[in-house]
Amino acid sequence: MSATIADPRSARPTSRRGGNLEKWGWMYMRASGVLLVVLIFGHLFVNLMTGEGIHQIDFAFVAGKLASPFWQWWDVLMLWLALIHGANGMRTIVNDYVTHKTTRSVLVWAVWLAAGFLIVLGTLVVFTFDPCLGVTPESILWADCQAA
């Protein structure tokens, strides 16, 4: 009994029409990975290398950054790309190692739901951040928040 393996370069019949989800996922991982390297190193450079370095990072520094639309969009883009990149990686791992179809489907749905929830929550935090929310007269931020 002999088994023949088809030549990998030979034309394979395609049974599906439409887009190839795995191909687009693979392309997304490469593109988002390159963009994330730029975004993350830019984030680290601004936070750790400019000004007073790590000693400048406090509530006021973060509040100041989140008051700027540029940094809001920078952080949201980094958040979205990182979470989708990570969720797609987890989807690939689940597809590779989970053999039971129902379990695989449940886990993939759980990964995407968790990523979606964190994207929505993170985006809301970035765009609705108010450093004066809940500030009382005893707080050191009281004078700054009254001036605003």
From TrEMBL:
<dbReference type="InterPro" id="IPR000701">
    <property type="entry name" value="SuccDH_FuR_B_TM-su"/>
</dbReference>
<keyword id="KW-0472">Membrane</keyword>
<keyword id="KW-0812">Transmembrane</keyword>
<feature type="transmembrane region" description="Helical">
    <location>
        <begin position="106"/>
        <end position="129"/>
    </location>
</feature>
<dbReference type="InterPro" id="IPR034804">
    <property type="entry name" value="SQR/QFR_C/D"/>
</dbReference>
<keyword id="KW-0479">Metal-binding</keyword>
<protein>
    <submittedName>
        <fullName>Succinate dehydrogenase hydrophobic membrane anchor subunit</fullName>
    </submittedName>
</protein>
<feature type="transmembrane region" description="Helical">
    <location>
        <begin position="27"/>
        <end position="50"/>
    </location>
</feature>
<keyword id="KW-1133">Transmembrane helix</keyword>
<dbReference type="Pfam" id="PF01127">
    <property type="entry name" value="Sdh_cyt"/>
</dbReference>
<feature type="transmembrane region" description="Helical">
    <location>
        <begin position="70"/>
        <end position="94"/>
    </location>
</feature>
<keyword id="KW-0349">Heme</keyword>
<keyword id="KW-0408">Iron</keyword>
